[in-house]
Design brief:
Blueprint: E1 7-11, H1 16-27, E2 31-36, H2 39-51, E3 56-60, H3 66-79, E4 85-88, H4 103-131, E5 134-139, H5 142-146, H6 152-172, E6 177-182, H7 190-193, H8 201-207, H9 216-226
Parallel strand pairs: 1-2, 1-4, 2-3, 4-5, 5-6
Helix pairs in contact: 1-2, 1-9, 3-4, 4-6
Amino acid sequence: MSLSGKVAVVTGGASGIGRAICLQLARDGADISVWDLDGDGANDTVTMITEAGGRAIACVGNAASADEIASSAARTRAELGPVTILVNNAGITDFRGFEDITEEMLERMLRINIMGPFLCTQAIIPDMLAAGWGRIVNISSSSAQTGASKMAHYATSKGGVIAFTKTLAREYASRGITVNNIPPGFVDTPMLRKSPVDVDAEAASSNSPMGRPGKPEDIAAACSYLVSEAAGYVTGHTLGVNGGRVMP
């Protein structure tokens, strides 16, 4: 599925699922703008792409700050061209009981996980409207589909991502832009390894009929399909990549 001539922005592209998506879309032929707060990680992703013959830049900044988003978008357009693929992947997680979640914790979660995709999309969608073609993929979470103990603020924010996806899909379907979301299940990433969840076969078995964690590349493969011409009649869709954890 060739993306030759397309420019893609991937937020949170310095590691884990974001990095895997960057590498996959670059293999598909897209030029990649890697957005992340982690400058070293973003530059490492760019190096992996360029050493494989692709074209990429790193934009270091906060993907939940309107000013920094505007700066990254302007640099991307100047160096790579108009953006017609956006993957809203940047996000944070947290584990704590509902009664222990402070107002500040909730605000930070919502700011990064839902306000971030909202602002990034507002900054990029004019390019898609001008082109009459666009692909937006939001990375949500299976926790929003099932609920998740000690993750009320996280699951709430990711539920907002799913609703945001469906709303934009309806608003822009007639204008050549598709909007879909992927809710990963139990995926072995650096973020997961830092969490209280044990990354082992027993933990994976409790979350997935397949009895193993997913890989970042599994999410990247689904994203590759959703941003391709092959998915031109798919919008507002929740494409679960979770090893069977959620079966709607």
